[in-house]
């Protein structure tokens, strides 16, 4: 089992920056990919970025260049640096971890952290 706790959300003005953190506990050695997703009111949850245990990253096309994902495997921690924030970035941001050996992989989700960008 893997448990995730996010932190770092808050209220920021457009053009500002925030850094989200997600700390994993439990069987962190079994974690493969980690990532961030977000969900705005009335919308489905969408991918923000993922990072493999080897450091390979993947971003939503619309966010490339503004958001940066990074991780520390030993600590089971993943970060999301968000720059040049826009009001449309307002959402609840969720941390995700995929763990276990294929085909017995599982997903773990954090409780979410609110990011609000004011215009």
Describe what you observe in this structure.
The structure is a single chain. The protein is mainly beta. It is 0% helix and 57% strand. It is built from no helices and eleven strands. The strands form two sheets. Strands 2, 4, 5, 6, 9, 10 and 11 form a seven-stranded mixed β-sheet that branches. The radius of gyration is 14 Å and the shape is elongated.
- Alpha-beta classification: mainly beta
β-strand percent reads: over 45%
**Radius of gyration computed on alpha carbons:** 14 Å
User: What is the element string, with H for helices and E for strands?
Assistant: EEEEEEEEEEE
Which range best describes the helical content: under 10%, 10-25%, 25-40%, 40-55%, 55-70% or over 70%?
under 10%
Uncertain parts: none
The rough form would be described as: elongated
- Distance separating the two termini: 40 Å
Biggest sheet layout: 7 strands, mixed
Number of strands: 11
SS summary, helix count: 0
Give the averaged pLDDT, no decimals: 95
SSE map:
Layout: E1 2-7, E2 10-13, E3 18-26, E4 31-39, E5 46-51, E6 57-59, E7 67-72, E8 77-82, E9 91-99, E10 106-109, E11 113-118
Parallel strand pairs: 2-11
Antiparallel strand pairs: 1-3, 3-8, 4-5, 4-9, 5-6, 7-8, 9-10, 9-11
Tags for this model:
119 residues; mainly beta; 7-stranded mixed sheet; 4-stranded antiparallel sheet; 11 strands
Entry summary:
The protein contains no helices and 11 strands.
């Amino acid at each position: 089992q893997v448990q995730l706790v996010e932190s770092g959300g808050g209220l920021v003005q457009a053009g500002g920056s925030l850094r989200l953190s997600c700390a994993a506990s439990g069987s962190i050695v079994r974690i493969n990919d980690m990532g961030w997703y977000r969900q705005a009111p009335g919308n489905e949850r969408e991918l923000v970025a993922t990072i493999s245990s080897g450091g390979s990253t993947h971003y939503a096309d619309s966010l490339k260049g503004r958001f940066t994902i990074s991780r520390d495997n030993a600590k089971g921690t993943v970060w999301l640096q968000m720059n040049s924030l826009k009001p449309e970035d307002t959402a609840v941001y969720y941390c995700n971890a995929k763990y276990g050996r294929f085909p017995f992989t599982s997903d773990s989700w954090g409780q979410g952290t609110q990011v609000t960008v004011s215009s």
